[in-house]
Design a protein that fits this description.
The protein has 2 domains: 250 residues, Rossmann fold (3-Layer(aba) Sandwich), CATH 3.40.50; 172 residues, Rossmann fold, CATH 3.40.50. Helix content is 37%, strand content 20%. The chain has 16 helices and 17 strands. It is elongated. The structure holds S-adenosylmethionine. The site of S-adenosylmethionine has 18 residues, from β10.
């Protein structure tokens, strides 16, 4: 597999000063990614926006990425993980009749003492922008964030946005509302109608569309001002703290819930807990109840209704030789494939319907039988006869089975999943040699779990 690439871009926090190890290099190291830090560009928000579009276009069309650090390297969109840091848009261009409008962070940045000759801030004194500029600046700023985020999500490029300097918080909306009011009151004629809150261009609706990660990850809050030097570039400690923080965020981002393509439409959460993100089912708990062998060494495994593949991942991590997951939902299969790709695990996933004739299933996953078969929480979704045919055909050694809630639960009568009913059905339909009720999973509701021991065929 190609080595993945951490493409980081933004303002000072990506800056590669002569003294400091950057967070991007630390993070890339932890993730075992290539550090493609594009911070040398001295990126304003405008330039960040343009550069990312330029760079991903080239990756898409030519399969190449250039950064000063890496030179020209081969790259595919799926190998990219992009971290974009936005700066306070008012740092440079919010002026009112030549007066700087916001001194919040400016006061902390004593540029006269900075000793980095690469950056020249003298233009500040030369620029005078009309009062209209705060509105323009914010509209442009939010549009850029929203557009870029949407583009990356659309292209399915993993990404995290954060803000470098501007502590957006729960007061932000109020802040903008006040700001808008302020602007409205002093608004020159030419502005009338421009910032009507009911129009597309108004700031508050735009702000509401700004992605959560941008609102959430404020670097200054995480590394604190003590870890900044006088020029607001982070010191080594600050970089370390931010790389640790981002590493955790990254781990979470890599789980499937945050992915825009996560296919569940009916739930707020994904079904399976994975990678530190909460799902409807607590997989740790389930693995414990199922009392899985520590080692799957040399075993072949089939998971019927594999969902995002968390059981398959576990089987592979425990050493299984071959793991196959099928699910009739292609969205789940797509996510499952992505997760195994990210984890560099060799798992076969197929879109497959258990309700079809066995012959069709064999065309998809082959004739080979599996040592272990998992049929967890699929019982209520499937054609029982076809299911029995598949389990009997494919199970060589053990089938782990989990039913659904029994009795009246989730507003549904699941009484078919009582122990007696399930045992009855197993007895008449499945060719096991022994059966054991291995316990109740209790994470979502009470569900029976069985281990069906087959005759070795
Ligand atoms: C309740 S979830 C259980 C997921 C997983 N087995 C677990 O227990 O964590 C049911 C899964 O079965 C899949 N499924 C439903 N009907 C199916 C069918 N006819 N063939 C294959 N998979 C099916 C669904 O897409 C979903 O991923």
């Amino acid at each position: 597999m190609n080595k993945k690439i951490l493409y980081s871009i933004g303002d000072s926090f990506v800056y590669r000063g002569p003294k400091y190890t950057t967070w991007s290099s630390m993070l890339a190291d932890k993730l075992n990614y290539i550090d493609a830090n594009n911070g040398m560009a001295g990126t304003s928000n405008d330039r960040t926006f343009r550069s990312v579009i330029r760079d991903i276009s080239r990756v898409e069309t030519e399969g190449k990425l250039w950064t000063e650090l890496t030179g020209d390297i081969d790259c595919k969109l799926k190998d990219l993980f992009i971290v974009v840091g936005w700066t306070n848009p008012f740092r440079f261009d919010w002026y009112n009749d030549g007066e700087f409008f916001s001194t919040r962070y400016w006061e902390k940045a004593i540029f006269s003492t900075r000793n980095n000759p690469r950056v020249d801030f003298t233009f500040i004194d030369e620029v005078t922008l009309p009062f209209v500029e705060p509105v323009n600046t914010l509209v442009r700023f939010f549009n850029q964030i929203i557009t870029l985020k949407n583009l990356l999500e659309h292209k399915k490029i993993k990404n995290i946005f954060y803000n470098c300097f501007f502590p957006f918080d729960e007061n932000t909306i109020e802040y903008f509302e006040n700001l808008i009011e302020e602007i409205e009151n002093n608004k020159p004629k030419s502005l009338i109608g421009f910032d009507n809150p009911d129009t597309y261009y108004s700031l508050v609706p735009l702000w509401k569309q700004v992605p959560d990660d941008y609102k959430k990850y404020n670097q200054v809050q995480h590394i604190t001002n003590e870890n900044l030097d006088e020029t607001l570039h982070p010191k080594g400690d600050g970089n370390k703290m931010w790389s640790d923080f981002l590493f955790n965020v990254t781990e979470r981002k890599y789980s499937y819930t945050s992915r825009s393509m996560f296919p569940s439409t009916s739930r707020d959460l994904p079904y399976q807990t994975f990678g530190g993100e909460i799902g409807v089912r607590d997989m740790e708990h389930r693995f414990k109840i199922m009392n899985l062998p520590d080692s799957f060494e040399g075993k072949t495994v089939l998971d019927i209704g594999c969902n995002a593949g968390v059981v398959c991942v576990e089987a592979k991590k425990r050493g299984a030789k071959r793991v196959v997951g099928i699910d009739n939902n292609d969205g789940y299969i797509e996510v499952a494939k992505e997760i195994s790709n990210d984890l560099d695990l060799d798992i076969e996933y197929y879109v497959g319907d258990i309700n079809v004739e066995l012959g069709h299933l064999k065309e998809i996953i082959g004739n080979e039988k599996f040592d272990y078969v998992f049929a967890l929480a699929v019982w209520g979704h499937i054609d029982k006869g076809k299911f029995a045919g598949a389990v009997n055909y494919y199970t060589k050694e053990i089938c782990w089975f989990e039913g659904h809630a029994f009795g009246f639960d989730h507003g549904t009568d699941w009484s078919g999943d009582s122990e007696a009913n399930l045992r009855d059905w197993f007895k008449t339909h499945l060719n096991y040699k022994e059966i054991e009720n291995i316990g109740l999973t209790t994470d979502r509701s009470h569900r029976h779990n069985f281990k069906l021991i087959y005759k070795l065929q």
